[in-house]
Amino acid sequence: MAILNNGINGGFTDKVGSVIGYQLNGKWVIKGLPKASKKKNKLEVSSRMPAGSGLP
Question: Does residue 50 lie within any of the structural domains?
Fold first, then answer.
């Protein structure tokens, strides 16, 4: 997260590429989008478990 102090054209609201801009308590703030994580299926989870501890 970063705080903009009179940036190129001041602050901005909304999303530009992978950056979000908004105003918080009178200060312009920008932050990056969170990384999307892929959900693991049961086979992927079970293959990472130690041997002998199968699916419940």
Answer: no
Expressed as residue numbers, the domain containing 19 is 1-33
Q: Is residue 54 scored above 70 in pLDDT?
A: no
Residue 45 domain-assigned (yes or no):
no
Buried b (16+ CB within 10 A) or exposed e, 20-30: bbeeeeeebeb
19/4: higher pLDDT: 19
- Is 22:29 a contact under the CB 8 Å cutoff? yes
Diameter over CA atoms, the chain: 60
Mean pLDDT value across residues 25-52: 81
Does some domain include residue 40?
Answer: no
* Tokens coding 22: 């908004």
